[in-house]
Every structure is written in structure tokens, then in C-alpha cells.
Amino acid sequence: MKGRFVISLIFAFMTAIVGSAYAADYPTKPITLMVPYPAGGSSDVGARIVAAIAEKQIGQPIVVVNKAGAGGQVGWTELARQKPDGYYLGGINLPHLLTAVLDPERKATFKAEDIVPIISQALDPTTVSVRPDSPWKTLKDLIDDAKKRPGQIPAGIVGYLQDDEIGYFQLAEAAGIEMRSVYFDGAAPAITALLGKHVDVLFCTVADNFTQWKAGRIRMLTIMDKERTKFYPDLPTTAELGYPTVISASTRGIAGPKGIPDPILKKLYDVFKNAMMTKEHMDRLENAGMPVKIMVGEEFVKYYWDSYKVAKKWVDHVRKK
Amino acid sequence: MEALQYWIQGFAVATLPMNLLYAFIGCVLGTLIGVLPGLGPAAGTAILIPVTFSLDPIGGIIMLAAIYYGAMYGGTITSVLVNVPGEAASVITCLDGYQMAKQGRAGPALGIAAIGSFIGGTFATLALMVVSLPLANFALRFGPPEVFSLLVVGLSLVTGLSGRSLLAALVMTLFGLMLSMIGMDPVRGAPRFTFGIPPLYDGIGFIPVVMGLFGIGEILLSMEAPVLEVIKTKLTDLLPKREEWKVSTGAIGRGTIIGFFLGLIPGIGAIIPTFLAYAVEKKVSKHPEKFGTGVIEGVASPETANNAYANGAMVPLLTLGIPGSPTLAVLMGAFIIHGLTPGPFLFKERPDVVWGLIASLYLGNVMLLILNLPLVGLWAKLLEIRYQYLYPGILLFCILGAYSLNQSVFDVGVMVAFGVLGYIFRKLDWPLAPTVLALILGPMMERALRTSLEMSGGDLSILFTRPISAVLLIAAAIVLLTPAVRLLGRRAGKD
Amino acid sequence: MKKPWQITCIAFVALAIFWLVVSFEYPYKDKLGPGPGFFPFWLSIITGALSLALFFQITRGKNAMEGSATLIPERQGVLRILAVLVALVGSLALLDPLGFRITLFLFLLFLPLGLGERNWWVILIFAIAGSFGIFHLFYYGLKVPLPMGVFGI
Questions:
Q1: Above 50 in pLDDT, residue B81?
Q2: Which of B38, B194, C87, C116 could form a disulfide with C111 if both were Cys (CB 3.0 to 4.6 A apart)?
Q3: Is residue C102 in a domain?
Q4: Which residues 216-235 of B are in CB contact (within 8 Å) with C?
Q5: Which residue from A minimizes the CA distance to C143?
Q6: Cα distance from N-terminal residue to C-terminal residue, chain C
């Protein structure tokens, strides 16, 4: 009995040493960072920025690879399949990944547990945007009007069952209104539609409409966050306007397939956290209109599963109708 | 006038030695990237973004823009020489361009493409400088219903590509539409016709299909010939003949207008302007039946249109901050990484960047012309490499290109499969262009129709009550029904 | 000489029928209008109908397409085509397991030989340049990821 105990102790000790030695060696070859969206989009831009900075610290090239398709599903399917040796990482977007997994119609071949979040980069809250000449000056105006003509106001939404649609659902439920949802594949066609008067209100994120806001072509009614954002300091939050439960955001981060050994994970936490906290990273992301939010390890994992619950509520709401 | 002052300032910026150098490097790199089938301007530009990180913003943007339209021309080179279109914009060029190359006239084909591209691009840039904002605003009125109707018009023009059999062209179009339904549908985001194969979730992949049908199919076809002749090009044949110059002028003029105006509409994609220009050219031609056998207008027209389109698409990008295509989205990403936000704000805040870029576009067009015209002879000579090396080499780049799209061997497989199909179709004289067109237009049409219905709450009449859309649909009906009526008329006459 | 064309038409009809059957899995209508199954359904029907029409047009000899070329190339041609196909399919199968460099080295070795080239030295140089050389240029130079096989090559 005692002998076995000693042996397992020694074994555990050796594993720990080998494990950390393993980690000490890591990385010995280039690391792939897969972006599940096309080149040039905000996810891609964010990934390239952080990769360029992190690779200097980690000592090996971080090669950004685009595996776009099916709203990210193609890329994440690939990520879940990869060996958890720390050499293949992927960008993830929440809640996009979660709704892909939860929505039975998407026929995802991977599960939420197959992907382990490592660190988040940006948290991009949903906003309610209108044209500058729009008759709605405040959120209340919009809600009152929507109550008068339910299902009539064309509201643009970026993506199916993604952050913007969840934002719309939350608002619709809290305010008791219904609008006419019009879906767009990406921010660009959605904004074009708003500017071209094909929809009258748009649910999109800060990063999506920053360019247009700077140009004065878009005005916002509210932002779905707990605190005001420094990008739009004069913009009241949903909490301030009486809807504190209406919170929605698109969160971007890096993840890996399930099973990456702890020592390697820890190294990844450190490297990416340092890279993201550099002035260069912060500045570049801010110039792009992307609000930086760094959650590392456990914190991000918790966020992941909290978002899962919210996503589940709304996916069920839509699919069980 | 204020604009003139900015223009001069812009030239001052663009002609700074470093910026000239960047533009030049961009043109060269872009052409090389374009020559690689499958790599395409979008992927190529994205790859080179990190390279430009180390440059100052203006220099970086100039280089990227140069890479972008350099790549457009590079795509033309492979279309003409080996019938492998590097990306959507070059597909139509294959039809006559490759035929000309087979007749030993690769030189004039490439030459007129370079000249047409230059003229188209230059005029588009001039128009960009003069009319940007009001035009861009007008183009915003093209919402989903208008886009749908425009696409219907585009699809109806397939009757112009019918080759020998209208019925076969229709079947091929439908085949393309059926293929385009593979993948996530635009209605609920659920996968269709994927049979549980994950790479199919995003559809069957336009580039591998096109590379297979056109490129590999052609190579297999070439392997048949009892004696594989090396295509010799005489130096004297490097320039177009006199009659060819004359018809090309008209083609270039029409191509420029069509390309530029379609560039203003965000989200159209490069194949529509090239295809529309080609179809229009064929309709106004005195010898429409010769299209597809190697007529020079068949090259001049789409090539001019695609450069005019590329430059025209800069209008919504620079004035409104809306990227009209995935490639421009990459360019916009580059702007953003460098801390510049495209849009009217940029015009006010950093006129040096905007006007410098515009002036550099113009200079870039000139540079491309100077670079490429002399090289035409060189490119044509490449075809003289012995086939035992030439074709394996081409296939090497096809494999490379198809793989690099998504780092997936599946795409290479699709390319090979469609290569075999392309060979069979070519042997039996079935037209390939309608399939390719339908493959691109299919998803766009379904999406546009769906979004239109969402806007109207399920009411189809939205397509007819909006003026632009209604006009386009009537035009499409006319185009589609005329041959059908003629066909029926002939039948009735016979009986 | 109508057989090949007739066969192609029938193949299209078969594809149309298959598509039709699969399209039944997708909802036809949706609260707003056509569902995912709507277009595939009608497309397959129209395709099937037109392919049948084409079949009859060809059978009655009224179509301009058929009889345009000699269909089976002569022996050398067939061998060359086979060589290309074997090379392509082979590289497909080997690309992931063996990686880019080895697979394309073999490809560029085999194909010129298969097409009749006999100059071993040039072939060898060509094969090395095309596989290892290109790989180096793209992977290290342009940072385009290319497959590395089981051996990490």
C-alpha cells in the first residue's frame, strides 16, 4: 500500500517536472492562429494585430490563417478537431460560437465543451443606430413608435442569432415591442441599408458603426452595456434608460481545442495578456473602434458559460416557436 | 476650385520618391499574386498587410492599393495564357482571351487588356475625383430589391452566352444554380445539400470550381492532340491589328462606363460588370457569332470593365467608408490597422492621404501599363516552354492556389472533380460560362430576395413598386423572352 | 453518334431527381415566404424538364451541339490524359499525409515522365524547385500555410 502511494507520488512529481519542461520548451515551431472569418473583417484585423505583437514575445512566428464560412462554423469545427498541443489556436466570437452549437438547424459537429477559451481581446456592445435625420431622438421615441405600429418598423440586424439579434430580443422583451427584422450577413451591407433608407433602425456593434459615426452619418440611441463607453461618451446606456437587463455584446477572443496541458495554457495566458496590454495593441484596436477587454483564463471561461445560458434562452425561444 | 488644389497636393504626395517606389513594388507584387491562380487579390492583399505594417500609413495604403489592382491584371495574364481565371473578375476574359492565345495572338490579347485596363482605370479615377459624393449617395438607393432585379438582368443575359444551343445553356445555368444552393441557406442559416461534409457548409467554393472547369478541363483537353504544338508567337504579332484597334475603342468606351457605374453599387461583385460589358459588346457587334472564338473586343471589353469597376468601387469606400467587395474590405482593414478611417471624415481630416491615394491610383494605372506592355512579349514566350514542363507547372500552381484558399485539400479535390467534368463538357460542346455565372449569382439572388421579403414583411410586390427594381425586371423579361418568342415562332412556322 | 449527349442529358435528369428528393428535407414555406426548400424544389423540376427536352431535341437530331468532334482521342492522347489524372488524384490523396513538399516533388517527377520527357537531370531540378523551392518561397517568404505531412515536412 505504502509502496504504491510513494510510486504514484513520484510519478506525479515527475509528470509535473516533465510537464513544465515541456512547457519550457514550448513553442518549438510556428503557431497557427485560425480566424474563422474572411480577411479584412474586424475579427481578422484584431487577430493580426495581436499575432504580430505576441509572436515577438513568444519567439516563434504566429501564422494567421483564414478559414471562413458558415458564420464561423467552418473554422470552429476545424479548431475542435485539432490536437491540443498548443500549436493550433483559433479566434472565437461569442455568442456566435454558442448559437452555432445550440441551434439544432446549424447541425454543428462540435460541442461547446470541445473548445476552451484562453483569453478575450475585445468586448463590443450592441448599439441601436439610426440616421441623423431620423424622427426618433431618443430610445423612448423609438419604443413609443414601435408600440404604435407593431411589426412595421424595418430593423436591420447583423447576423442570425448573434449578438445583435439577442440584443434586439432582449429589448423587444423588456420594452414589449416588435419590429420587422431584416437580416444582413455582415456590417457593411447592414450599414449600407441603413444609409440607403432600406431599413430605419440598425442593431449593430460599436466596431461596426464607428467609421460612420465619425463621419456623422449615423446617430445612436443607446448602447447595451452596464457602463458608458469611452468611444461614445454622450451615449446613454440601456441601464440608464430604464432597461438594465438589456445587455448584449460581441466578444472576441482566442481559444484552443479541449485538452491543452496546463503549463502550455499558462504560457499562452502570459504571452497574450502581455501582448494585449501593450500600448501598440491598445492603440491600434482603439483606432479601429474596437473596445479592448482582456479576460484571461478562468474569468473568460466563466464568461463563456454565462453567455452560453443567455444564448440558450434565445435559441430555444426562436427554434421552439 | 478646391478640388483642383487638393488634386495637385495629392500628386505632390504620390510622386514622393518613396511613395512611387511603394506603388511600383505594389504593382509588381500584385501582378505576381494575380498570376497565381486561386490566390486572388483578397488573400494576397491580406497576406501583405503585415508587410505594410512597418511602412508609414500613406505608403502602406498606396502599396496595398497598387497590389490590389496589380493583382487584377495578373489574373488576366493567367486567363489569357492558360485559361485559368485567377478570380471572378477574370473569368469572362478566358472566353476570347485564351482562344486568341491558342491562335498565337496572346500578345495582342494581353496588350489590349493592359491598354483597356489603363483607360478604364484612369477614367474611373477621374470620375472618382469629380463626382464622388453625389454619385455614391445615389448608388445607396440600390437596396436589396434593386440588387435582386439587377441580378435577374445579369442572369437573363446568359442567353447571350449560349453558344450553339440555347437549351443547353439554360440547363448549364440551372446546374450552376443548383450547385450554388449547397451550403448555408440565406433564410435560416441552416446547411443545405451538405451531406454532413463540413467543408461544404460554406458552399462548394467558386474558385476551385472555376479553376477546375476552365483550367484543368482545358489542360485535359489539350492533352488529346496528337502532336502537342508549342504555341509560337511572332514578335510582330505582339500588337493588335488596325481593324482590331477600331473595334476595341468602342469596347473600351462601353466597358469603362459599365464598369464604373456598377462599381458604385456596393456588394455587386466583379463578375457582373465584366459579364455585362461582354454581353453588351456582343449585342452591339456586327459579328456576334464570332464571340468566343477569339475576337479582341471580347477581351478589351471585360478587362476595361473590371478595372473601371475596381476604381469605381473605391468611391463608396473612400466617400462612405463602405467596402463594396471582400477585397476592398481587406483594403479597408488595412486603413483601419494604420489608424485611418475611410469616409468623408477622412477627406476632411487627412486630405493628404485621400488625394495622395487617388493620385497614386492614377499613377499606378500608368505604371501598370508601362510595366506590363513590354512584359507581354515575355509572358507570351512562357507558352513556348515544352509541354512536359509547362503543364505540370501550371497544375502545380493550380494545386497551390486551390489549397491556399482555405488550407484545405477538399478544395483541391473539388477542382480536380470539376476538371474532369469540364473536360467532358468541353468535348461535348456544352457552354461553361453560364454555370460559372449562375454559381456566383445564385446565392446573391436568393439572399437579396429573402432580404427584400424581410423588408416588406413578406410582400413580393416590393420588387415591382420600387421604380428602379421594376424597370430592371422589365428589362430582364425582355431579354429573356425575346429568344424564347423567336424559338416558338420558328417552331410554329415550321409546323 | 448521339449517345454521349443523350447520356449527359439523362445524367442531368438523374441529378435533378436526386436534388428534388433531398430538397424535401428542407421546409418549403416560411412565415415570410419561400423557405430553404423552395428554390431547390423548383430548380430541380425545371432542370429535369429542360434536360428531358434537350434529350428529345438531340434524339431527333435537331441540336447543333452533337457530332462536333471526334470523341475518343487516339492512344497517345488517352495515355497523357490518364497520366495527368493519376498525378492529380494521387497528389490529392498524398497531400495531407505526406505534405506539400514530398507530394509535389513526386508529382513533378512523375508527370513530365508520364508525358514523355526523358531528361532526368532537368526533371529532377524542376521537381525540386517546384516542390521544395516553391514551398520555401510561400511558407517562409509569403507566410502562406501549406500542408506539412505526418513527418512534419
A1: yes
A2: C87
A3: yes
A4: 216, 219-220, 223-226
A5: A63
A6: 50
C chain contacts of residue B413, beta-carbon cutoff 8 Å: 92
Distance of CA B250 to the CA centre of its chain: 20
**Cα distance between residue A248 and residue A158, in whole Å:** 13
Q: For residues B123 and B180, what is the distance between their CA atoms, to the nearest angstrom?
A: 35
Domain that includes residue C26, residue range: 3-59
* pLDDT by 10s per residue, chain A, length 321: 566 666 656 655 655 555 555 556 788 888 989 998 876 677 888 898 898 889 888 888 888 887 777 778 888 988 998 989 889 999 999 999 999 899 887 878 899 999 999 999 999 999 999 999 999 999 999 999 999 999 889 999 988 888 999 999 999 999 999 999 998 877 878 888 898 889 999 999 888 888 788 778 889 999 999 888 888 888 999 989 989 889 999 999 999 999 999 999 999 999 999 999 999 889 888 877 888 999 999 999 999 999 999 999 998 888 776
Residue of higher predicted confidence among A14 and C31: C31
> pLDDT at position B44, please?
65
The grid cell for C99 is 505534405
Spatial CA neighbour of A203 closest among A230, A163, A146: A163
Helix B433-456 × helix B144-156 angle, to 10°: 160
B111-131 pLDDT, tens digit each: 888 888 888 888 888 887 777
Task: Please state, in angstroms and rounded to a whole number, the distance separating the CA atoms of residues B211 and B416.
Answer: 9
Q: Are residues C16 and C50 in the same domain?
A: yes
Tell me which residue of A110, A107, A140, A109 sits closest to A243, measured CA to CA. A140
User: Which residue from B380, B473, B440, B471 is spatially nearest to B114, judged by alpha carbons?
Assistant: B380
- CB contact set of B33 (below 8 Å; sequence gap of 6+): B39, B40, B41, B44, B67, B70, B71, B74
Distance CA C135, CA C146 (A): 7
Residue in A41, A191, A214 closest to B322 by CB: A191
Query: How many domains does chain C divide into?
Result: 2
pLDDT tens, position by position, B448-477: 888 888 888 878 888 888 888 898 899 888
- Report residue A267 as a C-alpha cell: 504560457
Q: Is B87 on the interface with C (CB under 8 A)?
A: no
Distance CA C139, CA C121 (A): 26
CA gap B250, C125 in Å, rounded: 48
**Structure pTM?**
0.81
Is C9 in the same domain as C44?
yes
Residues C20 and C44 in one domain: yes
Cβ distance of A193 and B42 shorter than 8 Å: no
Domains and CATH numbers, chain A: 2-124+250-319 (3.40.190.150), 125-223 (3.40.190.10)
Rg (CA), chain A: 22
pLDDT at C48 over 80: yes
Selection from B149, B459, B449 nearest residue A152 by Cα: B459
A181 and chain C: CB distance < 8 Å anywhere?
no
Does the pLDDT value for residue B233 go beyond 70?
no
Q: What is the dihedral of CA A242, A246, A250, A252, to 10 degrees?
A: 80
Average pLDDT over residues C118-142: 81
Q: Are C44 and C82 in the same domain?
A: no
- B240-249: long-range pairs with CB below 8 Å, 24+: B240/B108, B240/B111, B240/B112, B240/B296, B241/B108, B244/B108, B244/B112, B244/B296, B247/B285, B247/B295, B247/B296, B247/B297, B247/B300, B248/B112, B248/B115, B248/B116, B248/B296, B248/B297, B248/B300
Look at residue C70 and tell me if it is in a domain.
Answer: no
**Can you tell me the distance from the alpha carbon of B239 to that of B14, in angstroms, rounded to the nearest whole number?**
31
Least Cα separation, residue B122 to chain C (angstroms):
30
Cell numbers placing C40: 431547390
How far apart are the CA of B3 and the nearest CA of chain A, in angstroms? 19
